[in-house]
Every structure is written in structure tokens, then in C-alpha cells.
Amino acid sequence: WAPDPMAMDLVREACLIDGAWVAGEDWIEVDDPATGEVVGRVPALGRDAAERAIGAAAAAMPRWAARTAQERGAVLRRFAALMIERQDDLAALLTREQGKPLAEARGEIAYAASYLDWFAEEGRRAYGEVIPTHAADKRLFVLRQPVGVVGAITPWNFPAAMVTRKIAPALAAGCAVVLKPSEKTPFSALALGVLAQEAGLPDGLLNIVTGDAVAIGGALTQSPIVRKISFTGSTRIGALLMEQSAATIKKLGLELGGNAPFIVFDDADVDAAVEGCIASKFRNAGQTCVSVNRIYAQAGIHDAFTAKLAAAVAALRVGPGTDPANDVGPLIDAGAVAKVEAHVADAVGQGATVLTGGARLSGHFFAPTVLRDITAAMAVTREETFGPLAAVIRFDGDAEAIAQANASPYGLAAYVYARDIGRVWKVAEAIESGMIGINTGLISTEVAPFGGVKASGLGREGSRHGLEDYLETKYLCVAL
Ligand code: ADP
What's this model's pTM, rounded to 2 decimal places? Predict the structure, then answer.
């Protein structure tokens, strides 16, 4: 049922700068990870283009910020409605460049649109304060104002949702944006540019520049006009952008890597835990930053849980995301396949047992894998695999599980399966993580604050906190 995405009006082999579609002299080719075919090409632009985009954003922002939040919200709501109207086309394009099954791609488009819809409303609630005064002849006020021009850099694993999660609160707050999408999946972002224009977003407020990440990232971080960098990607690049932003003292929103523990206690509903684990681990072939990475199963249920998990994973169907029969698509590229393969080899070399899968298939496909007898020394425990590999570690006591869960530089998501309410609270409070799924493997929603602690990042996206991150506080002291 999917139309050929390359024939669609949503496809742009051009960048969006100040409302104009700009071609390039050099190009970057984009592959379909399921087939290796070239999907299309996008301009390989650099510092000059990024600087022009920053200039356009700065020029466009004051008029946008001066509009009422309701007027800005109306544009964002039209944008969201257009995304839903074009959900199937956007999903087909997303699957083509990113690989995830079409059903997941459709889900991502709805999820992406939900941020536009949410912040269209939330923008109206950027309340200030009146502070009871410290002096009889003075009155104190706090205004919330847009932070300024925003530089947004997004990854390939959610090519649509990571974009709207940044541009929706930015635009709702009254900011203008220069977006650099991942060069692996730029078409979804560019398609959103088409819809933003159709929704009536004035020129210059959403600029999309594809090309040399180092040059564009350098221009965004060094510009004194850009007041905030919002980045989703690896901890390594996040730290680099933070360092580059130091000279101009920018605000930073960083959604970085994770290494999510998934703890199943003896009193858990084992079938529900298996289901939640699969939802979190194998969605997007394990390529999400909140994907389960370390599964801790308590001694009493360890064997039953592991056997059920292996049986359920063995039943997952792997293949191109365009075939609705498939549950797990390809990995994004050869490097991603090599990493999963290396984690399996390292674990098996140190005594792990393969219960199902364990090997690469053709192309960028990897068989959904379950390993048991995993230890803290193995690479799969220490690093984010970002692939369809579930690694199970046995544990005895609650304190041991908490200590092991926290023995990571990361702290994005964690999952706990247990029925004892006291245990749930204690564990949830003790785990160093920005988000905790309790008896669920699916936690993402636009209404809740998404983000991490420790090396997993700074700031929150979604919810009212997501708007806060795009607002600056101005204190007014009025003498009577
Ligand atoms: P991944 O390894 O998951 O691709 P990255 O952190 O490398 O994660 O990429 C996330 C985003 O950061 C992508 O849009 C990528 O192009 C961009 N990026 C990579 N290197 C840099 C850099 N030096 N400066 C700015 N952006 C960068």
C-alpha cells in the first residue's frame, strides 16, 4: 500500500534557508538500509550555509516572538494536522531511509505530530511571576521570554520525532531554529520543512541545513547569535558540542546515550516482563536510546523469564520494514551490525550462552538475539549495544540489583518489574536515571519529561518542562 516515496511531493533534495529551497554543489547520498539502494541525495552544505541560516533565523525571530502564543500555536496545530493527514506518506519515507517497520514508522509520525500539538497549547502557559516585594517602594516581576535562536542537531534513529521534539517547543516559545538533521536520514526532516511551510510558518523560522556535521556544528556552536544548542545523539558528540559552546556560554539541551537496566524481581509478572522487555529492546531493532541494554533477572524467576524471553524473541520476524509481516528491520549501517556482532563475540568469549539468534543475517540485518550467563565484565553490560541483542544477568538481592544498575556512567531510562509496592518505591528512588518504567517497557509520551542524568544528558523534552528549556527568565525590579 506504500506509495513510492521518491515520487512524492514531500521529497526535497534541497535545504531550507530563509524560506527558500537551496541546492548544493556537492551532495550526500542517502541509502535504504534494507536494500543498500540509494534513496536520493541531499546538499552537502557547510559553514556558509549555516551562517546564512542563523542570520535568517535572527531576522525572523522578533516578529514571531511578538505574536501571541495562540497565533504561534495555530500554526503548530496546522503543522501537526498536516503530519497526520500525510502520515502514510511520511511513514513510507521514514521506513525507506531509516529501515524501521512501517507500523513503527506510522507510530513515530503520530508521536512526532503529538509534540507539535502539545506545545501549540503549552506555549500559552509560559507564565511569569509577581514576587511579594522585599521593599515597600518596589514591585518585583518575572517575565519568561524566548531563549533566542536555537541550533538543533538530530540523530537518525527517530528522524521525525527527534526533530519535532525540539522545533515544537522552540517555535511555541517564540524562538527560530536552525536544524541539522542526521545525514543518514535527512528526508524526513526536509519533508517536515515542506509541511511547516504549508502550515504557514513564516520564512526563516525553521531552517534545515544538511551537510558537513563538523562545519555546521562549528558554525552553530561558535555563533554568538545562537543562544541554545539542542542535541540528541552520542555522549561523545554531546560533550564536544558542550565544549564548543563554552566560549559563548550557551544553554544546552543534551539527550545522549543510555545503557538502560531492566530489572525483573522474583515477584514480577514474568509474562508481562517478557512482553515489556521485547517492546523496549526490539523496537526499532534496538536502536533507541531508551532501549533495554542490561537485563537483570532475580534468581527465583531467572530461568523461567529467560526461557520465555528466548522463545518470544525466536518468534520475531526479521526483514525489510516495508513488509508488514516483519517485526524487526535492518540496522542503520554496517558499523551498527559490526557492533552487535562484537558484543555477541565478546560475551560468548567470556562464557555467555546464546539462546537464540547470535549472528548477522544478510545485508544490515541481525538475528534477534538472547544471551544468558552475562557478567558485569562484558562489553554488552558496559556499553550501549544499539541493536537487537538481549543480554540476561542473574542476581540475588535487591541491593545488588540497584548497585549494578547504577554501575554505569549513563542514566537515561531504567525499567523495573515487581509487584511489591514498597520494593518498587525503594528501587525507583535509588536508581540513578531520568526515567523509570515500572511494569512497562514503553515510557515515551509528549506529556512527560524525557531526559537523562549523568552522562545521558541535560534538560528535558516534552511536558511543561520541555517548554521551560526554551525560555529565559527576566526579572524586573520596579521602584514606585
Ligand atoms: P550516532 O553515532 O548515533 O550517529 P552522533 O552523535 O554521531 O550519533 O550523531 C548525532 C547527530 O550529531 C547527527 O546529526 C550527526 O551528524 C551530528 N554530528 C556528528 N558529529 C558532529 C559534530 N562534530 N558537530 C556537530 N554535529 C555532529
Answer: 0.97
